[in-house]
Amino acid sequence: MRECIENPAECRGEVEMRPSLTGTGTPIPRCDHHWEKRLERDEEHRRVYPDSPIAPSWFDPTLAGERWDDDY
Fold first, then answer.
1. pLDDT tens digits, one per residue of 4-60
2. The pTM is what?
3. In whole angstroms, what is the distance from residue 23 CA to residue 40 CA?
4. Are 12 and 4 in contact (CB under 8 A)?
5. Residue 22 C-beta-side C-alpha neighbours within 13 Å
6. SS (H, E, C) 4-49
7. Distance from C-alpha of 25 to C-alpha of 8, rounded to nearest angstrom
């Protein structure tokens, strides 16, 4: 039996091998509850850090000396 990689005390639902959202291709065992939580975190991450060549209004390159678009 597979065990969810998250906190077992909070697990609910079936544990299944879920796709990696980071692009590693490695399936990860998560229960239904923690899979939903992971999808919510991924959605929030994509909202804050959009996959766009245009920097969001909050981005300030002077804070860390970084660029939003590395295609310079």
1. 999 889 999 999 999 999 888 899 999 999 999 999 999 999 888 888 888 888 889
2. 0.73
3. 17
4. no
5. 6
6. CCCCHHHCCCCEEEECCCCCCCCCEEEEHHHHHHHHHHHHHHHHHC
7. 24
